[in-house]
Design brief:
127 residues; four-stranded mixed sheet; 25% helix; three-stranded antiparallel sheet; globular; 3 helices
Length: 127
Amino acid sequence: MSISKILLGALALVSALCFADVAGSRDGHVRIGADEQLEAWDAEAGLWLSPEAFWLAYAQRQGGLTWGRGSDYPPYAEVSEGDTFMVELESGPCLMEFFHQRWRRANDVRRWDPAFGDVGGCARVFD
């Protein structure tokens, strides 16, 4: 292996480690902010937001929460692919998206940071 390939590989590794938690790393990346609260990177807005604000911004870009917020899911026969709903549980909210004929956590559809699986009601949404 040539020295240039080794140096390029080392540079890529250092870059990945140094910039893994900076703005723009990827949409839905989660970090602990200065106030010790979770923040999610909204790539389109270029801002760190609370997880709930991130979900609402995503839903707004899709046309808003299709079914609003609540603890009771919408009637199955009236739901369409891609619909969104903010389910409210005792442990907090969780953005749901109707995908392939069932409600799923939006993170499971969009593949944002796995940490979203533990945010608010998302950890208990299927209990």
